[in-house]
Design brief:
about 425 residues; alpha/beta; UDP-n-acetylglucosamine1-carboxyvinyl-transferase, Chain; 2 domains; four-stranded mixed β-sheet; 23 strands; about 30% helix; about 25% strand
């Protein structure tokens, strides 16, 4: 699918972006492993989260309302999953694969997990290796680094794992595997990564403790079904935040946005860039902070984005690169090597496409340098690289281009934001 974007000079309205992707994934996983009903509202119906739900259906979990924002998950308990009759295809979802490997490693059955061409190129050794150290038996291409992966469930040992990277996916995988071990499983990170798994484990009744950069969970808990209200995804909201900031005469209100401190790094950066935004009606739902965000056109100032804030906004860096093109001064994005192993090499992709749009940008191994403000010329065809966040970032850039742009292979947007274009039209 080609996506055609025409320049707009005024954006206004009140919108609600889809549910949080990370929380939607985890609501299915823990709801399936819990005893009793888990009722989910606001579920993200993108392909990534649906693939997680379909995988658990194949393992014997009954899910009502699949494909809608409201679902009921009939949990089978920690040890109630069944061996699937066929391969679990997780599509483009790295979160599904990395977190589910922790769960599958502790089962008493055989599983094969795979994904699309993009997911089959993404490194899995970062979770496979520590799982093997705990007794897991996992095989795959490149020594178990690449899917398809075969998992032969085993009894797992509880251990302390010191992660070399601040990664919520790595941490979550080990903690979920720890549910199947006897005793305490500990994960220590070099910096704080997003903590949705910890919050939700505790909400479902797991004995989980946080001590600085260490998270620990006791094995063999009795998880109980809960009611989950999924807030709007701040990663999805970021595209509209930036769209309003860089457009003239813009004012948007984004409703019900999740503001988890381990995810809201984009707000820290936008504050540093002197963005005009306001948090309204702050509240708490299933241990997750939520608010409405009011955002207006702003004269952005350049900043340096790096260090401890990177794990809090790794998915928002492509759209922040677009914001940087309109900021006064030189914006530096650094310490973001993780971008090179996402759905695509997002550093290379954004540098290539911004240059195609007439933007001056310097590529670095761990990020990029963008002087501003610059005009975005447009009048060309851009490539999404099959990456939803690249596609949507380019769409936002197209709103302020001198001429319209065309984005190829834009179907990928459906993985996380099925109604992106519909919302864009409403404002």
């Amino acid at each position: 699918m080609e996506l055609k974007i025409k320049p707009k000079d005024k954006l206004e309205g009140r919108i609600k972006v889809p549910g949080d992707k990370s929380i939607s994934h985890r609501s299915v996983m823990l709801g399936s492993l819990a005893e009793g009903r888990t009722e989910v509202t606001g579920f993200l119906t993108g392909e990534d989260c649906l693939n997680t739900a379909r995988a658990f259906q194949k393992m014997g979990v009954k899910i009502e309302g699949l494909g809608s924002e409201e679902m009921i998950i009939h949990g089978v308990g920690l040890n109630g999953l069944q061996e699937p009759e066929s391969v679990l295809n997780l599509g483009n979802s790295g979160t599904s694969m990395r977190l589910m490997l922790g769960i599958l490693a502790g089962q008493d059955f055989y599983t094969v997990v795979t994904g699309d061409e993009s997911l089959s190129k993404r490194p899995m050794a970062r979770v496979v290796d520590p799982l093997k150290e705990r007794g897991a038996e996992i095989y795959g291409r490149d020594g178990g680094n690449l899917a398809p992966l075969t998992v032969i469930g085993q009894s797992l040992t509880n251990q302390r794992y010191e992660s070399p990277v601040a990664s919520a996916q790595v941490k979550s995988c080990i903690l979920l595997a720890g549910l199947y071990a006897n005793g305490t499983t500990e994960v220590v990170e070099p910096a704080k990564s997003r903590d949705h798994t910890e919050r939700m484990l505790k909400y479902f009744g797991a004995d989980l403790k946080i001590d600085g950069l260490k998270a620990s969970v006791e094995g063999q808990p009795e998880l109980k079904g809960q009611k989950i209200v999924v807030p709007s995804d701040i990663s999805s909201a970021s595209f509209f935040l930036v769209a309003a900031l860089i457009n003239q005469n813009a004012e948007l209100v984004l409703e019900n946005v999740g503001l988890n401190s381990t995810r809201a790094g984009i707000l820290e950066v936008l504050t540093a860039m002197e963005a005009d935004y306001e948090l309204l009606d702050k509240r708490l739902e299933n241990q997750e902070p939520i608010a409405d965000i009011k955002v207006k056109s702003s004269n952005l100032q350049a900043t340096t984005i790096g260090g401890e804030v990177i794990p809090k906004l790794i998915d928002e860096l492509p759209i922040l690169a677009v914001a940087a093109t309109q900021a006064e001064g030189e914006t530096v994005i650094k310490d973001a090597e993780e971008l090179r192993v996402k759905e695509t090499d997002r550093i290379s992709a954004m540098v290539t496409e911004l240059r195609r749009l007439g933007v001056k940008v310097e590529e670095r191994e761990d990020g990029m340098i963008i002087p501003g403000p610059q005009s975005i010329k447009g009048g060309c065809s851009c490539c999404s690289y099959g990456d939803h966040r690249i596609a949507m970032s380019l769409a936002v850039a197209g709103l302020i281009a001198q001429e319209g742009i065309v984005i190829t292979d834009a179907d990928c947007i459906k993985t996380s934001f099925p109604n992106f274009m519909d919302l864009l039209k409403t404002i």
